[in-house]
Amino acid sequence: MKFNNYFFTSESVSEGHPDKVCDRISDMVVDTYISKDPQSRVACETLTTTNRVILAGETRGPETKKEELIEKVRGCIKDIGYEQKGFHWKNCKIDVHLHSQSSDIAMGVDSKGNKDEGAGDQGIMFGYACDETEVLMPAPIYYSHKILELMASDRKKGIADKLEPDSKSQVTMKYENGKPVKVTSVVISTQHSPEVDQSQVKEIVRPYLEKAIPKSLISDLKDEEFYVNPTGQFIIGGPDGDTGLTGRKIIVDTYGGAAPHGGGAFSGKDPSKVDRSAAYAARYVAKNVVASKIAKKCLIQLSYAIGVSKPLSIFVDLFDGDEEKAQDVQKLIQDNFDLSPRGIREMLSLNKPIYECTAAYGHFGRKPDSKGSFSWEKTDKTGIFKK
Fold first, then answer.
1. Percent of residues, the chain, with pLDDT higher than 90
2. Which of 53, 174, 224, 339 shows the smallest number of beta carbons within 10 Å?
């Protein structure tokens, strides 16, 4: 059913959220292995709790000593900003339990003889784009990310020195005729120093709301609909306040619930895992479709079987009721994009240490950089669809 007038909400969490600490550490492990050998295989999960970090998973690649990984874990925690009694980069206990990749998985994934490299697992992956923002992302998740990103930046610079690393945001928007027209409520929960009280925290974070969201969208926002730390205070936070796990924020990582998610997490996985690489490819295709201006929204679904190179299906929805156009776009995708695991990695240059920076503030809607990060955000294939 198509809705034109409605309210929609998305949330984000900061790099200091316990789950995001884990995502960062797991992606650091991926980058560490790939920097030594681009063909490395990594599937790393991280758990954090009070002054403790545990890494577990499977790897294949150059020998990497536990001491090196432990030092880099401390570097991640220090950069995020944790120097608290219950979670401190310098003295938290770190256990590394990484072992060799299963030979059964390796047999299915590796190319051999006439067999091309297969997908690292079965599953479905979605990509989505829409014209609600300049970066072709849904507005609620985009602004939720932006609030926290600005807060973290000033916290690290010492400008917002009463804020601590763990925080969450949530933006509700009113849609009319399918377009976001105004923000109706905002929730920001942020860990803070015991030196400030509830009213002070609200005034500390207010400028970030106003800087992140265009004035035209928040001009009618009532102060009673701007919720800050609704519990009253948020002093105990991070892994000391709540256990963190890799891969628990998959909706935050993608489209904030505005589009489906296949179920697989991204962080901690090398690009042979289609959970990650095919989701990036689907976003790349969908973004180029919308950037070509043949559709205002585009949803792509891909499916794979473990050990099989080609995608089993490609589904396209342009949300305009034009089935023939959707079929034409599907044919253009099949003819112009190699969506095999190897093809995706080569198309987007994914065998690089580019993943640690993806762990917070979303994998999509970001700017590609000179190192190769966020290559799936380029709009260099619009000409294919403009035809």
1. 89
2. 224
Percent of the chain clearing pLDDT 70 (strictly above): 96
Is the pLDDT at 107 greater than 60? The verdict is no
pLDDT exceeds 90 at position 111 = no
The edge-to-edge listing of strands for the beta sheet with 52-60 is 93-100, 52-60, 41-49, 244-245
The one-letter amino acid code at 122 reads Q
Place of tokens 């709540």: 242
Chain mean pLDDT for the chain: 94
- Check if the beta carbon of residue 150 is closer than 8 Å to that of residue 211: yes
d(Cα 164, Cα 193) in Å, to the nearest integer? Answer: 7
CA distance 248 to 264: 10
pLDDT tens-digit map of 173-218: 999 999 999 999 999 999 999 999 989 999 999 999 999 999 999 9
Give CA 262 to chain center in angstroms: 14
The confidence band for 114, taking pLDDT boundaries of 50, 70 and 90, is very low
Closest CA to 146 of 360, 381, 377: 360
Are 190 and 205 contacting, i.e. CB atoms less than 8 angstroms apart?
yes
DSSP string, 31-58: HHHHHH-TT-EEEEEEEEETTEEEEEEE
Q: Which amino acid belongs to residue 254?
A: T
Does pTM surpass 0.90? yes
Question: Strand, coil or helix: what is 353?
Answer: coil
Give the angle subtended at the CA of 236 by the CAs of 233 and 242, to the nearest 5°. 115
The residues, ordered by sequence, that sit 6+ positions from 154 with a Cβ below 8 Å of its Cβ are 160, 163, 208
Cα–Cα–Cα angle for 169, 173, 174, rounded to 5 degrees: 165
